[in-house]
Design brief:
Length: 296
């Protein structure tokens, strides 16, 4: 693995926090992301390092498929090269965030391999737009683009279905919320979530506690850099997304996303203080943009 020395996952921030606060870990994450941004083959570097730490044999079908996908992403295949936000850097940030959250949750090696693979491909072949009026359009696109790699590597059908469920869990308005409800049903004796309006790939989460946990990890990893680090980094991520969508995204958009769509971390609750700071800053900025006397 020639690239692992360029990214040492035994160093901060990739340690379960002991005596550290969320702000310090956020700073470590941002420093790591800056290092990643300067790497030539950044996706391969991140994926190889994360899978190595996960403890999977390099010949494992998930490793083989993930490394092939990572190499193609580094070559520009499905990497969203023209996207200001959904691009190779985002893929790397989500993989590394998923690795960290899996450490917090104590996920086993095989399950970690599955969720790291899902994190890698969750936005594979992203076209720079939104789902618009076609629910789960982008998630289906990513899952279908990754499928030939899994087939070629011999990834079992049931594992492919688990990865597909995790990909669908990154859809923030329905998928991520359903994954969270399933996880809380198992982990905190919450009510069993309704399957009404839930697409078939997500349904297994309602009966599989480990899969629900994996799905929450991938979903929270997808938004960690924009919702769980610093106010400045969160604003930078929003600026990139506005460029990608070719429309301004004011503070009201950030407030709605943080308060109504994402709401809070579960597995990543360690980052909740950072999220509260982002919510407060976004609300203050929204109030300034609306002007004095305007209703919230």
């Amino acid at each position: 693995m020639p690239h692992i020395r360029a990214l040492d996952l035994s160093k901060p921030p990739f340690r379960v926090p002991q005596g550290q606060d969320a702000a310090a870990v956020a700073d470590d994450f941002i420093a790591c992301f800056k290092i990643v941004s300067a790497l030539r083959d950044k996706v391969s570097t991140c994926v190889e390092a994360a899978l190595d730490v996960a403890g999977l044999d390099r010949r494992h079908p998930l490793c083989v498929a993930s490394q092939r996908i990572a190499r193609d992403l580094d070559y520009g295949v499905g990497a969203g090269g023209a996207n200001p936000y959904h691009n190779a850097q985002h893929f790397c940030e989500v993989v590394l965030s998923a690795h960290y959250l899996s450490l917090l949750a104590g996920v086993a090696a095989r399950e970690k391999g599955e969720l790291l693979t899902a994190a890698l491909v969750h936005d594979f072949h992203h076209d720079g737009s939104t789902n618009a009026n076609v629910p789960f359009r982008l998630e289906r696109l990513s899952a279908e683009a990754a499928s030939p790699y899994f087939e070629a590597a011999g990834v079992p059908i049931d594992v492919q279905a688990r990865i597909r469920a995790m990909i669908f869990s990154t859809e923030v308005s329905v998928g991520a919320r359903f994954a969270r409800e399933c996880h809380l049903h198992f982990a905190a004796s919450g009510p069993r979530p309704s399957l009404a309006g839930i697409p078939a790939p997500l349904a297994p989460l309602a009966d599989d506690a480990r899969l629900a946990l994996q799905a929450v990890i991938v979903g929270e990893a997808d938004v960690l850099s924009s919702a769980g680090l610093t106010v400045q980094y969160g604003e930078l991520q929003q600026e990139k997304l506005a460029q990608e969508w070719k429309k301004p995204l004011g503070a009201d958009h950030k407030v709605r996303f943080l308060n109504q769509v994402f709401q809070d971390f579960t597995v990543g609750h360690f980052f909740s203080p950072n999220l509260r700071a982002l919510k407060s800053a976004a609300q203050d900025r929204a109030d300034r943009e609306r002007g004095p006397g305007s209703p919230r």
